[in-house]
Amino acid sequence: MPSPSKPLLYDPPDSAASSTLATGLQHLKEPHTQTFLKAIFGGIELGASGLAALLLAKGLGDGVKEQVPMLERVLQGIIFPFGLVVVYLTGCELFVSLIYCALCLSKMCGGPEKVCV
Fold this sequence. Notes:
Oligomer: single chain
Structural class: mainly alpha
């Protein structure tokens, strides 16, 4: 247990759960067009990072690939996650996160037939 004089470097579980719920409820109040556009732009950003990873790795010369065979995979593994960071920093969404939020809220409310707002 950390001492009370030192600030916590993380959110306690109760605080993290309540902030996640508040974020989910805020997303439910957004207009559908805004949610749709944020999901489209998030997919474009993630797809662009995948394309950048492929282009960078495939752009290596054959001599480099023969000398360091795993360099192609390492570069792809380093470049692709930057797309996820860009999605987060620009405030875009991924469709998967919207579905996850809706499922969690429907389970908390007792089922998909009940409205929880």
